[in-house]
Amino acid sequence: xxxxVAVNDFILRQKEGSGKSFTNKLSFQEIAxxxxxxxALGVFKEGYRKGVRIIDVDSxxxxxxxxxxxxxxxxxKLLAKYVQRREDEKYYIQIRAKxxxxxxxxxxxxxxxxxxxxxxxxxxxxxxxxxxxxxxAVPEGVDYMPMGPVTMMRNQLELPGGTKANYSSEDxxxxxxxxxxxxxxxxxx
Length: 189
Known about the structure:
The chain is of the alpha+beta class. It is built from four helices and nine strands. It has a single domain, classed as Protein of unknown function (DUF3228), domain 1 (YaeB-like fold). The strands form two sheets. It has a five-stranded mixed beta sheet with strand order 1-8-7-3-2. It has a four-stranded mixed beta sheet with strand order 4-9-6-5, with no helix packed on it.
């Protein structure tokens, strides 16, 4: 029996100009349908906790996704903003690059949460077993893109918008190290 995948409302923020991975070629429903097919083929790995899956997008579709990141170097101008993702969440410091060349996507990962995990914080959008909550266009040449440290903090401290998790000191170090070299490009107004 195929496991069904629905579109969670949280992913709707991933559009052009958001500073997040996006696509103008595929609908969110088409991405969820692709996740279903990949999961049926066993093309997934378990995420940071039980009930979270990471689905690899078929390489034939990678070019349909836009990677929002630039590689930080000595010339990169950075911008720090005090922002809030959603009304019920705490503010955090967001770092974006003001300049730089967008990197090509080398692969795309779809992030699915099981209904039980989303129900813990009443964040499910449907009653289906799995919901697509995010996708990440990973820069070419990067094998592993760790979760951002702000997201990890929100999860581990069980803050609003976080999903209960516990990370190792190595997970934390890899996240901080990676995000010292990459930043999302600030969308132009």
